[in-house]
Amino acid sequence: xxxxxxxxxxxxxxxxxxxxxxxxxxxxxxxxxxxxxxxxxxxxxxxxxxxxxxxxxxxxxxxxxxxxxxxxxxxxxxxxxxxxxxxxxxxxxxxxxxxxxxxxxxxxxxxxxxxxxxxxxxxxxxxxxxxxxxxxxxxxxxxxxxxxxxxxxxxxxxxxxxxxxxxxxxxxxxx
Length: 175
Description:
CATH class: Alpha Beta
Order of helices and strands: EHEHEEEEHHH
CATH architecture: 3-Layer(aba) Sandwich
Largest sheet: 4 strands, mixed
CATH superfamily: Metalloproteases ("zincins"), catalytic domain
């Protein structure tokens, strides 16, 4: 499968390998059956930026680890001459799924708290954010179990140890 994955580092992020981030996103999209050409942006930012986005768009006045801003409900490609959404893209344009914003600062704190390498925590948050773009959630225990299993599958496929995706967000934490 071929996807368009853009990676931007608004803060110095030596812990990440851009090629590996792209591979993580592509693996998650492929496992979820997302069609070729879909587009996802990943941004690594600081706590101040993520805090402001969280406050402005979610009404939560604190930083968080990852935010997902989905676009897939706003734009859909034309399929066989049928328009399936109010905003139409040319038939040869990929579906813009959205953007995942990861707080490097929070990721580094969480890595220490979970006893993980920073690169592993950042990778986990990228996958977590992409799965949110694709409709996964962790509000109910069964949803969380399915989401963690998929996260683990993606992380393992990209070289991370098995069984390392699981950890719980505070009850009021959503992305």
